[in-house]
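User: quick one, fold this
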Amino acid sequence: MNTKQDIENFAVQYGKIRDEIGKEMVGQENVVEHLLLAVVAGGNVLLEGVPGLGKTHLVRTLSKVLDLSFSRIQFTPDLMPADVTGTNIFVKTEAGGEFRFQPGPLFASIVLADEINRATPKTQSALLEAMQEQAVTVAGETRPLPQPYFVLATQNPIEQEGTYPLPEAQLDRFLFKVIVPFPTLEELSGIVDRTVKDQGSRAEKIAGGGEILALRDVARQVPIAPSVQEAALRLVLATHPETADAPEITKKYVRFGASPRGAQALLATARVRALNQGRFNVAFDDLRFVAPACLRHRMALNFEALTDGVDTERVIAELMIRVLPG
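Assistant:
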């Protein structure tokens, strides 16, 4: 059971990691916060934003601050599954030769899957086992991946020519889908100062894999009141138009709703945010904070929503007003 000292230590360590990342990132506090929530909760993140917003730099900075092994995969249409998982190669020896496994770039604690929607479905599917089971099977042999393990993928929402949209089964493996906004004038000025004028400080190692796993263990012990858990489950059910008591906006605009993984994501990340806020239990405000990132990629809208100009953000906002008290 967590003690008051455990909660305080969690908040202090979490704050140090966030502040250290802030040394190299201008603005994007909400993006950084969601990324850390997912990392501590043990999930994968899909970052969506136009080029040049620092998505790749953010992931590199995270690996530096956490002192974890890092690899980057630049996804292209000609990338093959063996290029990411690894393959057996023939090596000459004194006895003649033997096959040895050559690990692919998936064998790192933090894997940046850059422009993941540019890869073909065959290569995208090679990530599924790594994301869900944290293991890779090659030539009939399953090899575990290093712990902790995270896949942080990016995609460009504007340029869709020559891309392969991620299937629902793979989107569901991402704990969060985080929208990276364009910087404000003040933030843009800070970016220029740090890059062009080199006026920024460099992030340094703050924690390692062991510390992240320890923070995760603390978060898993945070209690959730039955009323809060029921609200999270009702929120997920409210995204399904086929249910009898689905809200009108869901029946009108939603084609299909979030999976049970959406409920798991809500509760796991809400626990981490409660600790980060210095509380011993999950509140409805924690669910409000994490719900958009947990649900926006797990539900699909119909054609009527497109014609009426309704997006998932509006649907989720109305569902939270309807379902979550306060």
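User: anything notable?
Assistant: The longest helix spans residues 4-22.
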